[in-house]
Write a structure and sequence with these properties.
The protein is mainly alpha-helical and 489 residues long. Helix content is 77%, strand content 1%. The protein has a two-stranded antiparallel ribbon with strand order 1-2. The longest helix has 32 residues.
Length: 489
C-alpha cells in the first residue's frame, strides 16, 4: 500500500512537468557548459560561450511556444506556469544572450575567466526563471538566493582590481541584509497563516486576516523592504551606484538587465498573489518607494559624470515607474509594469552593451566624456545610442514613450492623478541627462579621433537590439496585448 501510494504521489508530482522545460534546459546547459569548459577549454576556448548561447536560444523558443497556453500549478504548488512567467522567461533569455554576446571580447581581452562568467550567468538565469514562476514563499526564497549568489561571485571576477573586490563585498553584505529582511517577513507570514503556498496564503488572509492584522502588517514592512533592496528602490538603493561602477562593465551589463525582470516578477508574485488582500497597506509603502525612486533617482543622475553611476541612478528611476504600475493595484497597472520592465531590460542591455563593445585594448568607456564626438568616429553607433537614450527618456516614437504612457494611464485610471502628474514631472527632469549624452556624442569635440569599429556580427546584433526599441515603439500592440492577456481574469 505504501509503495502504491508512493507511485501515485510521484505520478502527481511529475504531472505537467514539461511546463518546467525552460528551467530544465537552462540547468542542462549550465552543466554542459561547466563540463565543456573543464575538459575542452584549451582546445576550444569558446566552448562555454557557444553552449550557453545555444541553450539560451533553445530556451527562448520553448518559452515563446508556451506563451498563450493554459496556466497550471505544478510540483505540489511550488511552481506556476502562466503567460506572465513565460513572457518574463523569454525576455530573460534574450537579455542574457545579448549580455553574453556583448561581453565576449571584453572578457577575453581582460583575461576575465570567460567560462566562469557564462556558467555563473546561467545558474543566475536559472534562479531568475524559478523566481518568476514561484508559487510558494519557499520557492521565492530559493530562487532569490540562486539569482544572487552567482552575481556576488561575478562582481569579484577581476580579483586584481580593488574596486571590483570592494563592490563585490558591498553587494554581498547588502544582499545578505536584504535576504534576511525578506526571509524574516516570510517567516512572519508563515507564523500568521501556517502556510507557504501563495494562493493559500491569500485565501487564509481573506478569511481571517483581521485576527492576525498586526503580525501581517509587521511582516509586510520587512517583505517590502527586502523587495526594495532587490529592486534598488530608494531608500534601499545605496549598493547600486557603487556596484555598477566597481564591477567589470560586462558584469554591470548583466546585473543591470535580466535580474531586474526577476525582481519585478518576484514583487508581482508576492504582492499581487499572496498579499493581494493587504493591498491598501502595501500601496502606501510602494507609493513612498516609487516617488523617492523616480524623483531622487532622476535628480541624482544629473550630477554624475561617470556613465555607469549615471545609468545606475537611471535604473533606480525606471524601476520607480515600474512600481507606479504595481501601485495602481489593477490588472492594467500590473500589465503596464510587466511591459515596462521587459522593455527596460532591452534598453539597459543596449546602453551598457555599447560601453562594453567600445571598451577595447585596455580602454574603459566609463565617463560621459568618453563618448565625445562619437558621431564623427562612428555615425551609425551614435545614431543607435541616440535611439536608446530617446527611449529611456520616453520620447516618441521610441518604445520608451509607451512604457511611461501605460504606467501613468494606469495611475490616472486608479484615481491617482496627482501621482501621475509627479511621474510626468520627474520624466521631464530625467530627460535632461539623456539629452546631455546625445549632445556630447553629436556636438562635442572628440578626445580620441580614432574611428570606432565593431565586427560585422557585433554590429548586426547591437543594431537589432537598438532598432527593436524603435520598431516596438511604432508597432507596440503585439507585446502590449501579450502583457494585458497575462493578467486577464
Amino acid at each position: 500500500m505504501t509503495l502504491l501510494q508512493g507511485k501515485i504521489n510521484m505520478t502527481v508530482l511529475l504531472e505537467n512537468i514539461h511546463l518546467a522545460a525552460p528551467e530544465m534546459i537552462i540547468l542542462a546547459t549550465a552543466c554542459l557548459a561547466l563540463l565543456g569548459d573543464l575538459f575542452f577549454r584549451k582546445r576550444f576556448p569558446s566552448v562555454a560561450f557557444v553552449i550557453a548561447c545555444g541553450g539560451l536560444v533553445f530556451t527562448s523558443v520553448v518559452s515563446y511556444l508556451f506563451v498563450g497556453q493554459f496556466s497550471a500549478v505544478i510540483l505540489h504548488g511550488l511552481f506556476q506556469s502562466d503567460d506572465m512567467a513565460q513572457l518574463m522567461k523569454l525576455f530573460i533569455c534574450i537579455t542574457v544572450f545579448l549580455c553574453f554576446f556583448y561581453s565576449k571580447q571584453y572578457n577575453d581581452e581582460r583575461k576575465i575567466p570567460a567560462g566562469d562568467y557564462y556558467i555563473l550567468g546561467l545558474f543566475s538565469t536559472l534562479g531568475m526563471m524559478s523566481l518568476v514562476s514561484a508559487h510558494s514563499l519557499l520557492t521565492v526564497y530559493l530562487g532569490l538566493e540562486l539569482v544572487s549568489l552567482p552575481l556576488y561571485a561575478m562582481t569579484a571576477m577581476r580579483r586584481s582590481d580593488g574596486d571590483s573586490s570592494e563592490a563585490a563585498l558591498k553587494y554581498f553584505v547588502m544582499g545578505a541584509i536584504a535576504s534576511g529582511l525578506l526571509l524574516y517577513g516570510i517567516s512572519l507570514v508563515y507564523a500568521a497563516t501556517g502556510l507557504l503556498d501563495l494562493h493559500e496564503v491569500a485565501n487564509a488572509i481573506a478569511m481571517d486576516g483581521r485576527l492576525q492584522a498586526p503580525l501581517l502588517s509587521f511582516a509586510l514592512v520587512f517583505i517590502v523592504a527586502g523587495l526594495g533592496f532587490k529592486l534598488a528602490a530608494i531608500p534601499f538603493h545605496m549598493w547600486a551606484p557603487d556596484v555598477y561602477e566597481g564591477a567589470p562593465t560586462s558584469v554591470t551589463l548583466f546585473i543591470s538587465s535580466a535580474p531586474k525582470i526577476a525582481a519585478v516578477g518576484m514583487t508581482l508574485r508576492i504582492l499581487t498573489l499572496g498579499l493581494v488582500d493587504l493591498a491598501s497597506q502595501w500601496q502606501q509603502l510602494i507609493l513612498i518607494l516609487a516617488l523617492l525612486s523616480t524623483g531622487l533617482g532622476s535628480v541624482l543622475a544629473i550630477a554624475q559624470s561617470n556613465l555607469k553611476r549615471l545609468l545606475a541612478y537611471s535604473t533606480i528611476a525606471h524601476l520607480g515607474y515600474v512600481l507606479f504600475g504595481i501601485l495602481s493595484a489593477t490588472d492594467a497597472g500590473y500589465a503596464a509594469s510587466l511591459y515596462y520592465v521587459l522593455i527596460y531590460a532591452l534598453m539597459s542591455a543596449a546602453a551598457f552593451g555599447l560601453l562594453v563593445l567600445m571598451s577595447k585594448s585596455g580602454i574603459e568607456i566609463e565617463q560621459i566624456d568618453d563618448l565625445k564626438g562619437l558621431n564623427r568616429r562612428n555615425p551609425w553607433l551614435a545614431f543607435l545610442m541616440m535611439i536608446v537614450m530617446f527611449s529611456m527618456a520616453g520620447v516618441p516614437p521610441t518604445v520608451g514613450f509607451f512604457t511611461k504612457l501605460l504606467v501613468l494611464k494606469a495611475l490616472v485610471d486608479a484615481h491617482m492623478t496627482w501621482v501621475a502628474v509627479l511621474g510626468l514631472l520627474f520624466a521631464a527632469i530625467g530627460a535632461y541627462y539623456y539629452l546631455r549624452i546625445i549632445k556630447v556624442m553629436y556636438f562635442d569635440e572628440a578626445i580620441d579621433e580614432a574611428p570606432v569599429r565593431l565586427t560585422k556580427t557585433a554590429n548586426a546584433i547591437f543594431s537589432t537590439n537598438c532598432l527593436l526599441l524603435l520598431f516596438l515603439g511604432i508597432f507596440p500592440s503585439a507585446l502590449v496585448t501579450l502583457c494585458i492577456n497575462a493578467f486577464a481574469n
